[in-house]
Design a protein that fits this description.
Length: 114
């Protein structure tokens, strides 16, 4: 409360919101355990800019996504795109045509479903 009051008095806007439980979310027990253990850890005086945190969180998210994607080797799309977040088409074609090209590459079209 002391820190909260100090931040409010210094002009910071703080929003406190309730987050629903991790019911039916993969890894929720680990997330709950990490959150509970954090309350007993000491606070460090490490200082870094917010954009550095954004870069690190983005890299962490992509690494996690890539680990999950690597488990899908038998997936048709995985055979074409081995790396997550790397699907790019030429800027000279529209998104619609990019989707058509991808569907043709994996063999998912009206011709294959009739």
């Amino acid at each position: 409360m002391k820190e909260y009051t100090h931040l409010i008095n210094s002009g910071k806007a703080i929003v406190i919101c309730w987050i629903a439980s991790h019911v039916n979310i993969r890894g929720s027990e680990r997330a709950d355990g990490a959150a509970k253990s954090a309350q007993f850890s000491s606070v460090t005086n490490m200082k870094f800019q917010g954009r550095e945190l954004t870069c690190r969180m983005s890299k962490f998210s992509f690494d996690e996504w890539q680990d999950i994607w690597n488990c899908c080797e038998n997936n048709k799309v995985h055979l074409i795109y081995h790396t997550v977040g790397s699907v790019t088409h030429s800027k000279s074609i529209s998104r619609r045509y990019g989707v058509v090209i991808s569907r043709l590459q994996i063999g998912q079209s009206r011709l294959t479903h009739y």
